[in-house]
Design a protein that fits this description.
Chain B: GO terms for molecular function: ATP binding; ATP hydrolysis activity. Chain B: Residues 6-236 form the ABC transporter domain. Chain B: Belongs to the ABC transporter superfamily. The structure holds two protein chains of two kinds. Helix content of chain A is 73%, strand content 3%. Chain A is built from eleven helices and two strands; from the N terminus they run αααββαααααααα. The relative contact order of chain A is 0.14. In chain A, β1 and β2 form a beta hairpin. By secondary structure, chain B is α/β, with parallel strands linked by helices. The longest helix of chain B is centred in the middle third of the chain and has 16 residues, at 169-184. The two termini of chain B are 38 Å apart. Chain B has helices at 44-51, 73-77, 95-105, 110-123, 139-150, 169-184, 196-202, 220-227, 242-249, 270-279, 294-302, and strands spanning 6-15, 18-28, 33-37, 59-64, 80-83, 157-161, 188-193, 205-210, 213-218, 231-236, 255-258, 263-267, 286-291. The chains are: A mainly alpha, B alpha/beta. At the A-B interface, α1, α2 and α5 of A face α2 and α3 of B.
Chain lengths: 275, 308
Amino acid sequence: MFIPMAVAIADARAGKRGERVYSGRVPQLLERGFIAFKSSTYMIVISGFLEPVLYLLSFGYGIGKLLPTIAVGGESIKYAAFIAPALLATSAMNGAIYDSTMNVFFKLNHDRIYHGMLATSMGPLDVALGEIGWALLRGFSYACAFMAVIAPLGLVESVWGLLAIPAAVLIAFGFAACGMAITSYMKSFQQLEIINMLLLPMFLFSGSFYPISVFPQWLQFTVNLMPLTHAINLVRGLCLGNLELALLGHALYFVVMIIIGLFFTTKRLNALFMK
Amino acid sequence: MSNPLISARGLTKKFGDFTAVNGIDFDVFKGESFGFLGPNGAGKSTAMRIIGATSQRTSGTISILGKDPELHGPQIRAHLGVVPQQDNLDMQLSVAENLYIYGRYFGLPRKFVKGKVDELLAFAQLEEKRDAKVETLSGGMKRRLTIARALVSEPEILMLDEPTTGLDPQARHILWDRLFRLKEQGVTLLITTHFMDEAEQLCDRLIVMDKGTIMAEGSPASLIKDYATKEVLELRFGSDRNQEMGAKLRTMCDRIEELPDRVLMYTDDGEALLEKIYAADFHPKTSLVRRSSLEDVFLRLTGRTLIE
């Protein structure tokens, strides 16, 4: 009897863990990302890279003139070297959020692309991981590009700074997983704006441009709960070579975000498509 | 007959208090073209989604190629080609890329899919549009692309939800022709439609659905034979007089339906009946004798027309 290849491929996965929601098709979804990327709007890609560079130029060299060094943990470092890691962490966040909110919302509600995907032998976890994987690839490339700008400028004080790149990917993963989970519950573009409304103050208050120790206790406490604060502390610690146990704590914060985000995304996609 | 490909018993789907599909039984056999005919909201699409393993039933049983879609979703979907009611083509990709990536979603190797893309572009008569963006296609072309896309995995069962809704007559005929070819190749077709001509053209066997239940089942010809007469005489007396005239004509034929715009008289010989009506000194504004259709079957079963 003739067995179609698609059936043989699907049957080979029978009995594997999570076979109802996952078929190992993340590479295929990334392939879609590349094909779509070839004909996409390069402006969005370029602006994602330019944004942190512009912040670095304007603040690093503008404020850097007035405030050549800044004291961090008893050491004094160049102001530009203080903000560069924060900008790296923020650009990882912004890239991941863009891909996992706007892009996902459009595919989910407007083009209904996921409906088409889930009529194949893929499962919702494939779609979730594929989309998040794409966000990570983008986060990774932004981090590399930004690193290629700040390292030659002497703004990375330690060799450990190289680890800032995988750290940026971890950060992007956490934000992308949660971003996609939240987006899957959103009903309109207006609701998506809420995410943007939260991101800006988080960026401004999370110790990007000055240490949060200048804030009163209650504000410090609040800021310390925010994910971006942990992202910045993680990347800054690595770039300055301040290896301390707290860095593991910051990384752990993102591991938890990833787990929670993936759990709700898969749950929600299952509910949306298997209703 | 061999074992059915698809078999449902007491299939029920509820959304809250609303029962979309209410305990239906049906079997679909290999190579046949099986239709769900009914008005919007009859539960056809819901039934299709349950078969397509993208919706979970509330109760009852269903087996597709011997498997339960609730437990083996991805494996069952590997057998199916799905053409949804609402196009969901990938707008960011070209025509050929849409076919290519869809094959990849099934895990098929690149080389295999590339060969398939050429074959399917020819089948869908879209070779000239190979590199065009999907947005630039006409409605009929999008539909053909969606069907071609559903065929990329060489499915044994092709499911089409309202395949020609919104298309102009010419585009519909091109599409029907493509579906005939698939049927000839032995693909099992599952079609929902609220067009009786489509059901008559495409389906070997169908179930007539209304409000989540099956009203009748059979081939188009046998349904017409069982639930309607050979011919129908349509008379129009003007909108305010149809009711009144219907009442007077009732005794002259087997069955009569008074619709707001016309009176339908069911008989085996329409011309003879029309002569009798003129002889009895009734003067309809227009008259038409036609063969009975599935529309008449539906009217008989539910007291309503398919498209309201």
